[in-house]
Amino acid sequence: MVVFDMAGTTVNENNIVYKTLRNAINTVGGFDLSLAEVLAHAAGREKLQAIKSVLKCCLNLVNDQLAEEMFNVFLQELAHAYEVEPVYPNANVEELFRLLKDRNVLRVLNTGYNRETAEALLVKLNWNVGRDVDALITASDVPMNRPHPDMINLAIEKFGIENPSSVVKIGDSIIDIQEGQNAGCRLSIGITTGAHNRLQLNSAHPNYIIDDLLELVSILDKHNV
């Protein structure tokens, strides 16, 4: 089984989610945080936790009520952004999905989005669970989110996988890599197409860092996955 992150990994949305997150934080709080600051501390996280992380790490501020207000504004603005802004499949992802299906390798999407947002994104991409991917696991489906392994564990349970050593995780953020490591995945792979650059990804000590999703095929061959 391969578990893929969504935004920045399988989905090219030009950082809409983190631009929207930054706007919600700055608008509600009267701050002037940069996109780079938001990406550094929010990427890959469930989005309410992402806001709390940004507030604490960038502003030394802990305020759950303020974070909730920002989160509600974020959800409203993101829904609108996904209606009007272009969103595309990431380069070569649909070819990779087909190749994995031909190999009988399960394709699971997991995401820091809630289920409503993630499903709306699938509709926009014209991706169907059961055809293009085998499952969608979201932040609202589990008690604890990245870097905790709950989403990967839920996928493992869903498909009756006996050992996480047959699972590969790939994502564009440090916290994606940590999620795979905490789940005991055979490989935890970073990709440079999203939130974090190669240097940032390397700080989490992934098994591999790739620049294109199709590089995954030779890695799976090498490890007999």
Automatic annotation (TrEMBL):
Its recorded name reads HAD hydrolase-like protein
